Hints:
The complex is a heterotetramer. Chain A is mainly α. Chain A is built from 15 helices and 4 strands. Chain A has one domain. The longest helix of chain A is centred in the middle third of the chain and has 27 residues, at 177-203. Chain A starts with a helix and ends with a helix. The mean pLDDT of chain A is 87. Chain C is of the alpha/beta class. Chain C has a 5-stranded parallel beta sheet, with helices on both faces. Chain C has a 4-stranded parallel beta sheet with strand order 7-6-8-9, sandwiched between helices. A 3-stranded antiparallel beta sheet of chain C has the order 10-14-15, with helices on one face. Chains A and D meet through helix 6, helix 10, helix 12 and helix 14 of A and helix 4, helix 9 and helix 11 of D.
Amino acid sequence: xxxxxxxxxxxxVIALVAAPLLLEPFRLxxxxxxxxxxIVALGIGLAWGQGGMLTLGQGVFxxxxxxxxxxxxxxxxxxxLPDFMVWSGVEELPALWVPFANPVFALGMAVLGPxxxxxxxxxxxxxxxxxxxxxxILTQALAAAMVILLVxxxxxxxGTNGMTNFFELFGQDLAEDSTQRGLxxxxxxxxxxxxxxxxxxxxxxxxxxLVAVRDGEDRVRFLGYDPALVKTVTFAASAxxxxxxxxxxxPVVGIISPxxxxxxxxxxxxxxxxxxxxxxxxGAVLGAVVMGYAKTALSEQFAGGWLYLQGALFILVxxxxxxxxxxxxxxxxxxxxx
Amino acid sequence: MLELRDVHVVFDGFRALDxxxxxxxxxxxxxLIGPNGAGKTTLIDVITGLTRxxxxxxxxxxxxxxxxxxxRIVRLGVGRTFQTSVVFEELxxxxxxxxxxxxxxPLWSLARRRRGVSEAVAEALARTGLxxxxxxxxxxxxxxxxxxxxxxxxxxxxxxxLLLDEPVAGMSGDERERTGELLTQIAADHTVIVxxxxxxxxxxxxxxxxxxxxxxxxVEGSVEQVSADPRVQEVYLGRRxxxxxxxxx
Amino acid sequence: MRIxxxxxxxxxxxxxxxxxxGAAPAADSDEIKVGLLHSLSGTMAISEVxxxxxxxLAIEEINKxxxxxxKKLVPVVEDGASDWPTFAxxxxxxxxxxxxxxxxxxxxxxxxxxMLPVFERYKALxxxxxxxxxxxxxxxxxxxxxxxxxxxxxxLDYLKEQGKKSLFLVGSDYVFPRTxxxxxxxxxxxxxxxxxxxxxxxxxxxxYSTLVNKVMGAKPDAxxxxxxxxxxxxxxxxxxxxxxxxxxxPVLSVSIAExxxxxxxxxxxxxxxxxxxxxxxxxxxxxxxxxxAYKAKYGAAKVTSDPMEAGxxxxxxxxEAVKKAGxxxxxxxxxxxxxxxxxxxxxxxxxxGDNQHMYKTARIGIIQPDGLIKQVWDSDRPIKPDPxxxxxxxxxxxxxx
Amino acid sequence: MPAFLNQLPIGLSIGAxxxxxxxGLTFTFGQMGVINMAHxxxxxxxxxxxxxxxxxxxxxxxAFLVAGVMGLVLERAAIRHFYRRPLDTLLLxxxxxxxxxxxxxxxxxxxxxxxxxxxxxxxxxxxxPYNRLFIMGLAVAGVVAVWVxxxxxxxxxxTQAVVQNRQLAATSGIDTGRVxxxxxxxxxxxxxxAGVALTLIGPVGPALGTYYIVDAFLVVVAGGLGQLRGAVLxxxxxxxxxxxxxxxxxxSLAKVIVFAVVIAFLQVRPQGLFVLRSRxxx
Lengths: 338, 249, 401, 282
């Protein structure tokens, strides 16, 4: 029992104790951002790694969560209309915005909104047995359509700019380093809890069923299960995680914009999961953190090179190590023991 | 128990089934034979909901099966195996069986971790003789073992009607022997339909046989009656003389 | 999870230490660090790289002339990657980690809006070099490009003088076009012009046949174009092949500079008017020197454009304010800046004390077959910046006042 | 002619563009099930070929070869190892597309380049300029060529045989590896041809491919896997839908409407307009 939890405990101590003590605030903020991405990656690991659903539209759910939170933050400032509505010529707070003044509603919507959308989409798509590549393409198109929709409704969403300029969260000044450190701890804690919960799910009967659906959806039907239901529920769970990650991301980073939920960021996270190792949840988390860091570090060194590197890394991982870093590590360990 | 009336299936103009009537009473072991393309597998597909008939009715235990989704038919108690066995290679043998045994549980209760081995799974393990391999991953099983696992999964479902599609195809002599014993055991307390090519196997285990030809039921009766029927001999002699029913040694 | 503890924790520790590394060394006493933050990758790199180049040129020239307060300027260049959150992140890095004296950066309104809270939070300075939609005046931003009354309104004045009575508005779907078009509609309402249509397309949109059909069907005297980037290429190609000409229906653009003309194809866009404050052909002694220096540094085939010149100016204006303040300390520089007036390539530029925008001369030019732009109209003198259009009675109903 | 009637030929011409960019995909995605995210970059390669040659007609065959060879290399070097992992191909080829985009940026510079339109394409008939008619003609020619290839040539029939049953085709003596190579070559080559045509109406720059890739896949998805007539009908239908949706609303909303209609359509026809029936249990 202790052995089983030791790796997790070690990482948890590093993340919750060592990091806030050792890192300067700017770097801690970056790490918090990567951990937000890691939450999304965890959901992708569940849906894709375990369930075989390659979702290229996870950014949409992330965005819904982020926008819900941003709407609350904008309204919490007080002082009338949000700034972007003023310069967009909106004179009265739109009805859609009114309930988001309530933090419970906003946070609830950040998770339930994505879950509901995923349930609807999943039901429509999986019932008709649209899967594999078709599903991937449809989620990608969803991301593209969502961006266009958000950009087009400038008075409601802030358009291309998105929303920025937030001052406080639950009465805490967001500019303060202590608030940011607190936020970091919240993000790390949420990630830890979700990781444990997802791991539990993966190791349960449901997890076995999910793998079975991934490897032989039609066969599962003849075991008396409805694969569409299994997939829809899993997809919704991953959407909920992405939504929560989006809600945490906004106060941490201080901005939400359509650029964060388009096709490219959605794909980048899938890449991260693939690099880390899609079949292991830890791989998904690791991939998101490492790729997030690599992007920051490398783009500081050479700008155009990042694209080459990302592309090349991708080609290499797919051809040489389809199970990612975790898979490689496992292979090395086996090679050593035999 | 199972009743098919005037079932038609047409694929792009090709009549795969052309007015099939079939009745299987409770507790019977029924063999389904016929040359390639006679419509045997299509018939199984129609019963289990994989293929929707163009016309006709399929009733099982008082329920109409036409238009029902596959998993709902399973839930009524109809289980099947496939010609090329499909087991979940990344799961262990016992996990495969457990999955098959758990479909009646509500979805939320599946989120709990499996503890131990349920009665249905233990029974399936014992019957198929896979106890030794219980914790091995299904990916390492031999062809014959996979077929047994598949039959085991079917048993773990505890269905009322079992449909086996060529259970001994590609098996060695020994394996056939064991599968035959397994089949006899199962047939003792289940209703079973077996699609089979293997004549030797048929002669040893069959009681009632239905012969399909070009999408129609040609003859139905005991093994002796069927093999004596001149029409059956003609159908088989025209195609595969070595397997032919009439070619008794 | 079947992953060994040493590997997992090792990797995480690696990530952590990596995050912590790269802290800046203490600033050398005879150097002043300044940040340059533009998109060097992604869709906006096309435009922003040239602005960075112009800023680097200015830094080099200032250093050659002895630097500022006897210290050399050292540029710290960061990539905004055409992604607004990245701009905010990199701005934070420049301020907090590199501890730069000031930042020159941004192009899109969205990138400026994303950086604004960062600069206000840390009380640091941003010099923003591109024309924009106005309705903003942050105490920590200096705006060296035009605001609406120095570009949009002169453009409309020009069309009115040309006798254009009806307009069709075409724009990309983001803040600048939408705000610009609100101003245009208010102007039209009080100046006897009619607006026959207002259409927006997503950024990167390339299928313009329907929109061109709408424009042709409406038969306006002129089109006011606020499309951005690649969309201009598709729009002008399809406008021309549908029979649109500069004579019958001029398209006045506010986002097409010398740089973009080659990509659109001179054939497709020659003869159409544009509105800016500066062209490569602008006839001032400072411009002759600027164009010569720029071509010498980056190649004879390179062209100069309005945002480049505004970025180039920004460095000089900041250096002047630092000299006047005697320090790079932000509040002192802000206090010293108002009233600073320099002869720049576009003519006299003065920093306005009220809103930290510049007095600038508006110029309308016509795109020439050689790809350069020839000035056909100007505002005679530098116009006082008025980001909230308080001095225009017809704009009273517009939001943000 | 009233403006809304004009939208009919405009819709057809949008459909022709969609068809042209999706035609290659009916090979690589439709026939082989490979999701090639670098398809857009093959289109870009075609457009840059036109830029380098400076002559539209000469560029058509050359672009076909250039993009085709790029596809061939990609298929041999990587994709052929992935036939059993279609989703991995998607991610792999996305990596390839990133590299190709950056490569274009480094080779040709980030700003757009200009491909002069030939003078004989100036002018037009009614609302449709000659360059649009040229694209429509090219799309029709492409469809006819593909149809003839698939149904009237030995190689094409082999391709179809491989699509319908790879194992059976292999056992009956068809070299499936060579068929795959050829299919990928043609599919990618068609992308190159589309790229040349697009220089007439759009920008030519490193981001060119990203503007068209999602639309192209939507056409194939709506049209049905491996179905030429499905792709043709879907392209025309989506073109008309786009044209009228944009006419009565705006360009942003039109894109959203098109997406919604495709989703709704898949509810009725989950496998697209036309499907190959198959008894294989997947």
